[in-house]
Amino acid sequence: MNNPLITVIVPIYHVEKYLHRCIDSIIGQTYKNLEIILVDDGSGDACASICDEYAKKDSRIVVIHKENGGLSDARNKGIEAAKGEYLAFVDSDDYIHRDMFKILMDTLLQTDSDVSMCSYKYVYDGEPDETDVSFGTDHQVDIMDGHKAQNRYYSGDKKLELTVAWNKLYKKELFTELRYPKGKIFEDEFTTYKALYKCSNICFVDLPLYYYLQRKDSIIGVMNGHRDSKVVAAYLQRIDFYRDNNEEALWRKGVMHCLHMMCYFNLNCARSVSDDGGIKKCYRKEFLSAVNSYEKASKGFSARERFEIVLYKLNAGLYYRIWRMTKRN
Questions:
Q1: Where's the Glycosyltransferase 2-like domain (predicted)?
Q2: Which of 83, 187, 197, 250 has the fewest beta carbons closer than 10 A?
Q3: Maximum CA pair distance of the chain?
Q4: Is residue 201 part of a domain?
Q5: Is 318 exposed, middle or buried (0-12, 13-18, 19+ CB in 10 A)?
Q6: What is the CATH number of the domain that holds 69?
Q7: Is the pLDDT score of 225 beyond 60?
Q8: Residue 132: band (very low, low, confident or very high) from pLDDT cuts 50, 70, 90
Q9: Is 54 strand, coil or helix?
Q10: Number of domains the chain contains
Q11: Do 279 and 209 have their domain in common?
């Protein structure tokens, strides 16, 4: 009961330079009861053979070779094959502290949580690994429910930790019907909040147990203004989710967050040589439809919020200009 099986899902695509370090950090965990699913997403480099070699050495490793379908599709294949009572995700260019799953599992069981999550640390090429750093047993643990987690996202407190897939240990039942959207970038923004919303308890361990590699050729590293803006589709979906679950206060927060992020991305798009119309053309209609879809909740906007929305409806260009001046000042 105190040593349940964790399935660790690693989606892999063109990361032969980093893959050994990633897998070594997982098989070297002090928590040993692991099923490690390596999903080779049609890599054209040496990743496929690296995965197969590890599977020969460690019976806990399962390798799935598939045609390239993207990160979401690879994660979904892992979820469908998972045998563990708990799920975890590790991106194949990152690596984890040797005690990550032990600490997350111990804390999850002690707090009777549905999800356990930790902090992270940015790492860069050429830096020494830190998997042997000792954290001891004295660390802060914060407990929240799914509703509080949604509010903390909008407060900006632990926003990345609450969004990404990879710093968490989940009860597998949270993914009974939930899957990552195939073909989307920022797939975590479409998915994680839905899993957290279901939770009675979520525990946050304030330790940087996940090492998040920053590299220029990653999906995030090559983003520009217009491609960044595609995350707005996730914000719009989130607004609809709150409406469908009668979460009036969260719906209003979601609307204002979406509006302000559209301003931010519109500014980035205007600076991008690849801009093809930017946010003003891409999401204006969808945003206004979302705002008008929940009359009951819309009555709770503050006077300032109502002014912002009305101005945006009347003249989006003027709204953007005022927003820029406000931010500049």
A1: 7-175
A2: 83
A3: 64
A4: yes
A5: exposed
A6: 3.90.550.10
A7: no
A8: confident
A9: helix
A10: 2
A11: no
